[in-house]
Amino acid sequence: MALDLPGGGFSDRPRTGDVSFRGTAELVAQGMAALGLERPVILGHSYGGAITLELGTWRPELLDAMILIAPAHPFSNSEDPLVRFYLSRPGQWFANLLPRLPKRLMLETFRRMPGDRGNVSYEQIEPYLQTLRHPGTIDYVLRLLKSWNEDMRRLADALRVRKPEAPALLLWGERDPVVPASTGAELMRHLGPSEQFTLHGVGHLPNDERPEECGSLIRTWLIWRETHWKCAQANRAKPVV
Known about the structure:
Blueprint: H1 21-35, E1 41-45, H2 47-58, E2 65-69, H3 80-87, H4 89-97, H5 103-110, H6 122-133, H7 137-146, H8 148-161, E3 168-173, H9 184-188, E4 194-199, H10 206-209, H11 211-237
Parallel strand pairs: 1-2, 2-3, 3-4
Helix pairs in contact: 1-2, 2-8, 3-4
């Protein structure tokens, strides 16, 4: 099941209300309850990864496992200049200009995201363009960025105090220009049982750039984890002689 977070997809772009990590994680928890999902495996990419981490630290009992694809996280500072830029007057002006840019210019803007710039087509960026052009998207994102640094600080504190109980799979692109794959090691120090796979030649959009490889890694990890968990449970159930 795929949830459109507020500000994206077919979801609302509210002008008021809580846009913090905790507020969004609470909405995800409410969505899980409404759908009758009991301890699901939750997958989050980029900003969605930060929301997944928030949920894993705040309500660990809700999750069975986490899959984090190039997640935004508090132990990487590479996105700080970008956040500062969009919170500045020139950055806000540029952000409001984005939905009106011609496709050719938008293509150049998005070409920094994948590992192989030459493989980006108009068809691939069209879903991103539709989201940006939806009324209210830019305003919502700018509101979200205003609390970004404080949200990251609180998430870092929470991860230092208590590691998420849910095991985690991390998928990263070797050439990620937004959240470098090298920062995954520090993140894993603050997680429970976790494993990272780095995809060579891939940027910040592993699920778009290598969907089949990502899917295969996720399926393999889930199958291994299920088998490993059953074996561990069986061993714990054996009487000690």
